[in-house]
Design a protein that fits this description.
Blueprint: E1 13-14, H1 17-20, H2 22-48, H3 54-80, H4 87-116, H5 119-149, H6 172-198, H7 206-231, E2 244-245, H8 254-261, H9 264-274
């Protein structure tokens, strides 16, 4: 148990399934995987100009909105719990934020024209990108500082500004270079994506750039997925020096099942879109006194699979 003194190292670290649980990790990984499949289909179909893929576009936008909001949310949780959260859990949050960023950027590649048609959608996306960038860079600075100081892994991440350096670890150079490259890359990509989002016209070679960026973002998503699976207790082996104690982060509960259940919502919305939009009646209808079937435009649509049984409901 942390006493608030950064000079006192706790004996162990409590597990945190809300951050590194199996359901939480799978929700980010599955959403990222489905988003890349949809974005790749839209971009490749766009090269052939064979279809506009309206259903895929709606589903991709739903997954992207869900991913970027949960990515921002989990980073806010990590920063709010700095005084109790150890670098192990904070690093997993940072990896999940990279998955969120990759999903957002690949959605921007595929749906940029959709966002340009509506200035509200365009600026909402811009604000979310800016907030995600700020939180991602701030979290990256904390991660970089823990590597530079070789911080004791059982101390809270907030202690990184107070503890003395313990020298360099064996993989310090690679970790520092990789962390700095990701932070700088996030800033550069934000500038380029902002231009891409607000530019009125794009050159003809932009479609080739879309494919190249799709491959780069795919590599980013795969790398973050592999790393989070290796580092997490739910799917891999966390560092032994963390001394995790408590219920395993791989255990399933309703709190772990809920993020996966929320993935069904975009699919349900897509089914509703495929079946057509509901049209509201032009005037108030009293269901008790005026049957809906009196109006030809709003007749009840029977189930075609019931066949002759539909006649029982027409009376």
């Amino acid at each position: 148990m942390f006493t608030g003194d950064c000079n006192v190292v706790p004996d162990s670290t409590p597990t945190d399934a809300g951050v590194a649980g199996a359901g939480t990790l799978l929700s980010f990984i599955i959403t990222n995987f489905l988003s890349f499949l949809l974005a790749a289909a839209i971009i490749l179909l766009g090269l052939r100009k064979s279809t506009s893929a309206p259903i895929s576009r709606k589903l991709l936008q739903s997954f992207s909105d869900q991913q970027i909001l949960t990515g921002i949310g989990i980073q806010c949780v990590g920063l709010a719990k700095m005084k109790t959260m150890v670098p192990y859990h904070f690093f997993i949050i940072w990896l999940l934020s990279l998955l969120s960023t990759a999903t957002n950027l690949v959605t921007l590649l595929a749906l940029v024209n959709d966002f340009k048609r509506d200035w509200v959608l365009r600026w909402v996306r811009q604000i979310l990108m800016l907030l995600n960038l700020f939180l991602g860079i701030l979290s990256g600075i904390f991660i970089l500082q823990t590597v530079l100081r070789n911080m004791e892994p059982r101390l809270p991440i907030a202690c990184v500004w107070e503890v003395e350096s313990r020298g360099q670890s064996s993989n310090a150079v690679m970790s520092i270079v990789g962390t700095i490259a990701i932070i700088a890359g996030q800033a550069v990509v934000f500038v380029l994506s902002t231009w891409y989002l607000h530019a009125r016209t794009h050159p003809k070679w932009m479609k080739s750039v879309q494919v190249v960026c799709l491959v780069i973002l795919l590599a980013m998503g795969v790398g973050a997925t592999v790393r989070v699976c290796m580092e997490s207790q739910a799917f891999g082996s966390p560092p032994a020096s963390v001394h995790l104690e408590g219920p395993s982060e791989g255990n399933w509960s309703f709190g772990q099942l809920l993020p996966l259940l929320l993935l069904v919502l975009p699919i349900i919305s897509t089914i509703e879109i495929m079946r057509g939009q509901m049209v509201a009646p032009p005037s108030r209808v009293d269901n008790d006194s005026q049957p809906l079937t009196n109006d030809v435009e709003f007749q009840y649509q029977p189930n075609p699979m019931l066949g002759s049984q539909n006649s029982l409901f027409r009376k």
